[in-house]
Each structure stands twice: as C-alpha cells, then as structure tokens.
Design a protein that fits this description.
D-Amino Acid Oxidase, Chain A, domain 2, 8-stranded mixed β-sheet, FAD/NAD(P)-binding domain, binds flavin-adenine dinucleotide, 2 domains, alpha/beta
Length: about 375
C-alpha cells in the first residue's frame, strides 16, 4: 500500500460485532474500513449456535439482562432488512425456548427464576411434566418442569455473517481481510489509526472489535483490558428421527434444531488459552449433558464438530465505549456467550456514541471500570 487509507471509522476485527457496527455506521453516512486478520466472522462468530436467549443466559435482572432484551427486540427488523438488502436469509426463528429442570433442586431454582422474570414483565410460562411431553415428545420423561419463553429463539450464525458481510459491501464499507493490525498510530494522546501487515490505516475513530484478542490490542496503549478466551466446543447431528420443534436449554447444555436439518448441541467452557480444537473429552461432556434432556440424541447421525474462542471479561459484562486516557479509540468486545444475541444493540449504541457522543446507555459497560488510574 503506497499511502495510508483514511476513513471516518476504522474497525479492528471482522466478527459479528465488528461487521454489525460497520454496517450501522455506514448506514449513518460514515466512511468505514474493517480489518480482519483471517476470514469474515471466521473465529468465535461462525462457531456460535445462534441462540437468542436473554432469559436463559442472564441469571439476574440488571443492565446486561436489559441489554439482551433490547437486542432481541431489534432482531426481527434487523434481519428483515439484511434479507431485503442482500437476498440472504439469516434464518431467524422465534418460536420459543424451553428451559428444562431435570431434578427437584433445579425445579426450585427455576421456579425462583420464573418469579423474577415474571415480575419484570417477561413473556414466560411455567410448564409441568405432563404439558412438556405434549409440546416436545422427544423430551425425556424424567424432565420435571420447564420455563417456556415463547418469544426467544435462534438464528443461523453462518448465514447471518454472510448477510452482514454482503450488506457491508453494499453500503460501501471497505472490507480488508487477511490484514493484521499490528500497532497504533499516535499523535500525542490521540489514536489516529493503526499500522498493519500491509500498511497504515488512518481514521477519526478506531474501534477495537477483536473478540478474544482484544486484551492483546489493549496492551498497545499500556491498558489492561481483562478479556480472555474461553473455548467452546459444539457438535452438529442430523435432525432425522429427532424432530424437535424448539430450543431445549438447561444447566447441562443446549439443543438447537436448525432449519437446515442440523441439530446443534453444546457447549463446553474450556480454559485452554488461544488453543482451538475439538477433544473427545469435550464431545463426551456435551453428549452426556444433552442426552439427559433428549435421550434419542445418542442415536443421532454425527455430522460435524468445531470450536471457537468466546471473549470473556472479568466481570461478565462486555466492554463498550471509549478507552480512558486516549482520544479517538473505543472498544466493543467481551460479549462472551452472547455476541450473536447482543450484536444489533451493540452496533446501535456504539454508533450512537460515535456519531452523537451519547455515552449514557453505555455507562454500565464502559472499559473505564477496569482502567482506573
Ligand atoms: C461454541 C460457541 C457457541 C456460541 N453460541 C452462541 C449463541 O448461541 N448465541 C450467542 O449469542 N453467542 C454465542 N456464542 C458467543 C459468540 O460467538 C461471541 O460472543 C461472538 O462471536 C463474539 O464476536 P466478536 O466479533 O467479538 O469476536 P470474533 O468473532 O472472535 O471476531 C473477532 C475478530 O477479530 C479478528 N482480529 C483479532 N485481532 C486482530 C488484529 N490484530 N487484526 C485484525 N483482525 C483481528 C479475529 O480474527 C476475529 O475474526 C458462542 C460462542 C462459541 C465459541
């Protein structure tokens, strides 16, 4: 590259978060460049099971729970727009999730969960064993009870990434894959871009959306951003002879029937550093967990297995917003198990900050909470 590429916004990382943000920013009239060291969405994002389940994933009311609900509410319109713009269908399905209790202890804990979710006005129903069997005949007869949340569901992460990448192209986002961001370009306390494996990129705003690698990039600026990789292993089996209607979720794993004939089962949480890969022990744990809910899964035809590195933060909340002590640089990362769910709301709120300086909705998630001097 002979001279620096200059844009209004430079996004480091082309996963679901970087692409969603780039699409949103370009829609607001900004010029945007995204740098991705590998393939678009090729890391954690493509590995995801695609569950959209704030009521399952967040164990207490609070800012993250509210963020999840807000993002779920954005999904139908967002996906419809992506489908319309690109002709690619992200296969959004919102026909409910069953959170299944397998013993009395879980039943008591889920009853409590049902209580606070109901008090928050969420759409939830309590189902007893007899009702469960009628809803999902393949469910184990040992299931005690379940919380049914009819408005949650799932999306096909691969198709969503394809649609987003195409939509970014259509909106004129400059997509540069195979490019590694290597160092910041500084003017005093302002970040004015990055050096990369192919040359310099300059921008008014640089946004780190580098998933599990975000902590490494923080070090460029001598900042400790507590984001670490937590590996997840999942498998896909054929849905033939296991015609499940909806997502089954529980303490021991999840089962996601996809529109394309696969059932995705998961997932492990491994502390394995940046090491990807599927292990037999990991697969055995997944199968052991999900068979409790649907015993027939043990006989399902195996199709595929893969892993990905979830970006986990020290306190479980994502890092969204400006980096303290520096100008021109922000972060959008640390979505751990819920980056697919949280992508539309992250894009919207980060874009509100970058275009209107609206920081208020990001308060609970500001990186400053880890960077006090
Ligand atoms: C097995 C598994 C199942 C999951 N299931 C779900 C689910 O059901 N629902 C849900 O909502 N979420 C799920 N998740 C979580 C979700 O996948 C993540 O939260 C989300 O993908 C994070 O997106 P991201 O864009 O931050 O990270 P990534 O997708 O990892 O993207 C970050 C990108 O940054 C790039 N990058 C890093 N450093 C540099 C650099 N220096 N220069 C250039 N590029 C760089 C990387 O190559 C990478 O592509 C799951 C995750 C896993 C692993």
């Amino acid at each position: 590259m002979d001279r620096a590429v200059t844009s209004d916004c430079l996004v480091i990382g082309g996963g679901i978060i970087g692409l969603s943000l780039a699409y949103e920013l370009a829609g607001r009239g900004l010029s945007v460049t995204v740098l991705e060291q590998g393939d678009w969405g090729g890391q954690a994002s493509v590995a995801a099971a695609g569950i959209l389940g704030p009521l399952q994933e967040f164990d207490q009311p609070g800012p993250l729970f509210d963020l999840g609900l807000a993002s779920l509410a954005l999904y139908p319109e967002w996906v419809a727009e992506l489908r319309e713009v690109t002709g690619i269908d992200p296969q959004l399905v919102l026909d409910g999730i069953l959170r299944v209790a397998m013993d009395e202890r879980e039943q008591a804990a889920f009853w409590e969960r049902y209580g606070w979710q109901q008090a928050k006005g969420c759409q939830v129903q309590w189902l007893e064993n007899s009702q469960l069997k009628r809803m999902e005949p393949n469910l184990s007869g040992d299931a005690k009870a379940a919380i049914y949340s009819p408005a949650e569901g799932h999306v096909n992460s691969r198709m969503l990434l394809k649609a987003l990448t195409a939509a970014c192209q259509i909106r004129g986002v400059r997509l540069e894959s195979g490019v590694v961001a290597t160092a910041p370009v500084l003017r005093g306390q302002r970040v004015i871009g990055v050096e990369s494996s192919v040359g310099m990129y300059q921008a008014e705003h640089t946004i780190i959306a580098a998933g599990a690698w975000t902590g490494l990039i923080g070090r460029w600026l001598s900042l400790t951003l507590p984001i670490r990789p937590v590996r997840g292993q999942v498998a896909a089996v054929s849905s033939e002879e296991i015609p499940l209607k909806r997502v089954i979720f529980g303490t021991n794993g999840y089962i996601v029937p996809k529109k394309d004939g696969r059932v995705i089962v998961g997932a492990t949480e491994d502390e394995a550093g940046f090491r990807l890969g599927v292990t037999l022990a990991g697969l055995a744990r997944v199968l052991q967990g999900v068979r409790l809910y649907v015993p027939a899964l043990g006989q399902a035809a195996f199709l595929d297995a893969w892993s990905g590195l979830r970006p986990a933060t020290a306190d479980g909340l994502p890092l969204l917003g400006p980096l303290p002590g520096w100008e021109g640089i922000a972060v959008a990362s640390g979505h751990f198990r819920n980056g697919i769910l949280l992508s539309p709301v992250t894009a919207k709120r980060m874009a509100d900050y970058l275009t209107q300086n609206d920081l208020e909705p990001l308060r609970p998630f500001l990186p400053a909470r880890f960077c006090e001097e």
